[in-house]
Amino acid sequence: MSDITEPPIARVDVVRETLHGITLEDPYRWMEAGGEEFHHWLDGQARHARAHLDALPHRAGLLTRIRELGSALTQNFGLAMAADRVFALVREPDARVPVLTVTEADGASRVLFDPGTVPGDGHHAIDWYVPSPDGRHVACAVSASGSEDSSIHVIDADSGALRETIPPTTRFAFLSWLEDGRSFVYHRYPEQHLLDSRSFLHQLGADPAQDAVVLARGLNPHIELTPRDRPFLVVPPHGEWMLAIISHGALSPWPWTSEQLSDCTIYVAPRAGLADPAACPWRKVAGAADGVTTFATSRDTLYLVSHRDAPRSRVLAVPFAAPDLSRARVVVPAGERVVESVRVVGDRLLVRDLDGGVSRVRHVLLSGGEPADLPMPVEGAILEWTTHPARSEALLLVAGWTDAPRLYRYDGQCLQDTGLAPRSPVDFGDVHVRMLHVPARDGTPVPLTVIHHKDLELDGDNPAVLTGYGSHGFIDLPEFRPEMLAWYERGGVYAVAHLRGGGAYGHQWHEAGRGERKEATITDLIDCAEHLIALGYTRPGRLAAEGASAGGIPTGGALVRRPDLWAAMAMHAPTVNATRNEFTESGPINVPEFGSFTTEEGLRDLLIIDAYMRVRDGVPYPAVLLTTGLRDARVPPWQPAKLAARLQAGTASGRPVLLRVEEHGGHGVGSTRDQEQALLADVLAFVLHASDDS
Prior knowledge:
It is an enzyme of class 3 (hydrolase). The protein is α+β, with helices and mostly antiparallel strands. It has ten helices and 38 strands. The protein has an eight-stranded mixed β-sheet with strand order 31-32-34-33-35-36-37-38, with helices on both faces. It has a four-stranded antiparallel β-sheet with strand order 3-4-5-6, with no helix packed on it. α5 (519-534) packs across α6 (552-561). It starts with 14 loop residues before the first strand and ends with a helix. The model has no long low-confidence stretch (mean pLDDT 94).
């Protein structure tokens, strides 16, 4: 690899500023403006990274094996039911991106919409979709090259014909069809920014530019909104009521679900109020302090999962006609399990719990009674679930770390395997999964999942990758990744740290790694790394960490605090310059989670998690692989770019610092199969090479 040229050197132009008595120095602030110089430098970094990665000795073999494993299983996800139809996103082994399929009552399946047919540069992918309750139409959100800047394609479910298209600026799956099956409400951003978003009413056949605003700042005196709030309108498929969900902060990392809400205010009103949105009699049910994280509805009752006065949450019921939360009925009391979500299925409430990192399901009559457990088919996770809008039926996609997803039907009594999800031909019988509880430095037990070949010797000489997220209350659920067998076959260890700031143990776990307590997210990752070393799984010269998005906080923090602990660090579209995050499009909505530079307290919180500001000259940093996508709508390329430039200038180790650039990619959503497999091969080859060199 000696013939690979050096990466281009970034111009240094230090910006000094003093905020709240704290002086900050930023040598690469100029990158934030973009422009020709930045993109020329970025192109040079991309070429250098590609040349380095392609020359890695393990890369070709890993990519071949990853492709072989990844082509063995058809993926089914994104399930929905309507009328006698089951909809799903399906990615066949040879497909670049998933297609939308429909299965009829007789079991016949067909492709309803292929985003590959959408014209334009790069590739297109389905971000989310919502079928009408009568099953006749599907509103399908499609974006280009992982940008998540979606246009809505309305598909005729009988013929597959494209009825119409609403231009881009749509994000999040808060789209509700009305009972006529020919109109829906949806959320949309202005064209130039992410402030003052609105919800609209669209009639099929009408000009989207003329869609009526039904929820927005300043529209209705009963609802208070700030410019950064997102107003989502939810119209259930049954009953006479509707909900306004006002999001004051960041939502779940993925746009598929209305679950994992945080910092939200909820209102209810008769759906007849859509006729006059400005005068609609909205009534507030719950505020941000009430800690509502998800909801479900019957015809006359709203069911809320709330962590107020219940650290692991409980389920409350309030009538739509008298939505007084102080008089709510407790349907499922607080307990040792974390109540994640609820769904109404006929006369029962289906309750999804998290029990020490494993999904559980209970059901209880809506009229009351003791919740009863449903036997789970595997010790794993409910990856997703969906209910029928008219029938007492639900579908649950269940998987484990070593168990491929299976699709189960709930009929009000029990779970039964539908046989619709194909069994994986990839044999994980020799792969072992172990759950550890690592004593953090303050004595708190931190869950750590460790996966490896069953014959692994604990001799301290195994290559290992440790990953963690630890923000937004996000839960690291068991995930079946057949491609990872390529790592386990080579003696690799993969470990998932369920860090504070995530949701492994509910609201308290989230709060324990939020704001001024964010240091715990970083030190938890370090403590988990040291525990793996102490048990003989690996050693510093063979240990790597990996994180994506907000997972750049624990990995970046561990990189600059303990560079001696790692052979390599891989960070994908990472948040690493938190003191400047508020100046990004998505930055303001993350203020409740991370803090704001506008106050001294907020700035100090941000400095905890700003890895870029903590890089020092002359420190021997490990090998570092940073990735970015030019279409990233959440973390702009200048975030990882600034860290790459700073590390390249400051490290004294001689180890590579690479910035991998995906020209037709974003934050990860909507990536093609080839992009996903190439990235995994790059990461594993980079880690192996760094380990071999140590």
